[in-house]
Amino acid sequence: MRFRDRRDAGQRLAEALRDLELEARMGQVVVMGIPRGGVVVAYEIARALQAPLDVILAHKLGAPGNPELAIGAVAEDGTLWVDPLAVAELEVSPEYIEEEVRKQQEELRRQAVIFRGARPAIPVENRSVVVVDDGIATGATMRVSLRSLRNRGARRRIVAVPLAPPEMLPRVESEADMVVVLHTPLLFWAVGTFYEQFDQVSEEEVSALLKEALAWGKI
Description:
- This protein is of the alpha/beta class.
- It is 40% helix and 21% strand.
- The chain has helices spanning 6-16, 21-25, 37-49, 84-90, 94-116, 140-151, 169-173, 203-213; strands at residues 29-33, 53-55, 58-63, 66-75, 80-82, 128-132, 156-163, 178-183.
- The protein has a five-stranded parallel β-sheet, with helices on both faces.
- The radius of gyration is 17 Å and the shape is globular.
- The relative contact order is 0.21.
């Protein structure tokens, strides 16, 4: 299975989430995208459900000398997940982790201002929250996002992604109440290889989509 672009992926996911329509009409559903590409996918789901759209801000913690390798992740509210196996194998010091968390939280604060402006985060307490990304690779940011939502009082945490490697699903399912994945390829190289168009998404585009969604989302 391939997707034309992120909007196509979001529209297909929206069809798979039609059972949430009644709950959404009652104002009990929030759709949250993981920036930046996940917000484009989430926008289509939120529009179909007429549900409020927000970002859920989380960053992976990069390994020493290899920032692309995740040793954990931290969320905007300070929720932290650290992979004990990766930390032990790479002999990562507590001091390094502390500094990496500080750096990533600083970046998350910057993103919150850019994406939301003066708007507060949309309340999630006692609501079903659909967490969306354009695909799952390591799962670090998704896992910490789900833990963050649990800490914030979400009633249900629903993961919706176009694709993910099958070995990643049990890790995500252990943190979520429901997982919707359209494609679980056995051979998985990178998320972008399953899209015909997978351009970089700018911060300006994310901000614009969030503003557009204010027209229909009942906060």
